[in-house]
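User: Predict Putative flavanone 3-dioxygenase's structure from this.
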Amino acid sequence: MEKLVSSWYNNVQPLPETYIFPPDARPGKLSTLPSSDNIPVINLGGGGAEGHDRTRIVEQILGASQEFGFFQVINHGISENLLHDTMDVFREFFALPPEDKASFFSEDPNKLCRLITSTGNYDRENVHLWRDALRHPCHALEKFIPLWPQQPLKYREHVDKCSTQVRKVALNILDSISEGLGIGYGHFSDELSQETLLSVNHYPPCPDPSLTLGITKHCDPNLITILLQGDVHGLQVFKDGKWIGKVLNFGEVHRVWVWRILITGLDLLCFGSSLFLLIYTFPYLGFNFQDRFWILDPPLGVEPLPQGLVVNIGYQLQCAEHRAVTNSSNARTSAAFFIAPSQDCHIQPATALINASNPQIYKGFQYKEFLSNYLMKQGNTEVVLEPFKLQI
Ligand SMILES: O=C(O)CCC(=O)C(=O)O
Ligand SMILES: [Fe+2]
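Assistant:
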């Protein structure tokens, strides 16, 4: 339990060395994100004429899946209240006193419902991740609910409702993908999407977000993931060799520049250049002025939309690389619902898509084979697919 970042982060300054990533893996200053491109937002219906056009939605989902492997959906049918209540029970779980969480903490990978820190493999990793996580299966509900936390009191009620609805949205999206690919409605139902696994990630405020990560660059091993990211930035997507971020709207850009000009003016007028120096020194004095007011470095990442669900296509369909960064002022909690094949499911390309100009690239495998290789390679995107490539 004492290994959990949430147990000790409050008294620690500076960032402990075991959490500092090698220079090439560090996020650096968030303002250095090279691209302000962002993932598409797709309206699944209910909002305006465009939202009801099924063919257009299928086109948008397929396009976003192929181009980004990532998108957000709105008007998906899950109420904003349910999303809020569910995120609240997750945050409340991490805020419980240590004695109320202790029975869930475990380093045994076979324990179905467990609280972990970092990757869950703390003693065998070189650098630790700045995150704790609560993990458990959700589907089939009646089988797994008895394993879930009973505190906070509403945990089981809200997570039960939310995971059922998230699963429905995911299956609808999978149907749109199979429809768009022309491989028949329901191609991904049954064994290919049999399981729902939940990982609630908790990233406490971090003394130096530029040196560490909440989650390193990876693709999810499953079929499709639905992520609730609450209202704090932190998710970044890797596309065409670049980390892509949030597009600041006019008001936000305006605000940043008004503040920058004001500060520079004040600085020159009153202090020569010392105020700037002071602002840059604040983080080292324990008060991160920049992150708190994002006057100098706006926060960047996939924009949290109040009702948005982030959808991410996993390895069994495509690979969409992403990571989670931390920040120094706010704790961030995100909930990833991984829709995954059953362990024994045989994965192979849809035969209708294979032809002379589109040959098969990967051999068929059992999902559990893929998972054990994924875990052995620690999700390293450079090598995970190697054993499954066909020699062409
Ligand atoms: O916290 C996030 O935004 C990302 C979480 C994630 O990528 C994961 O749990 O696999
Ligand atoms: Fe992920």
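Residues 199, 201, 215, 220, 227, 229, 234-235, 322, 324, 334, 336 surround 2-oxoglutaric acid (ligand 1) (CB under 6 Å).
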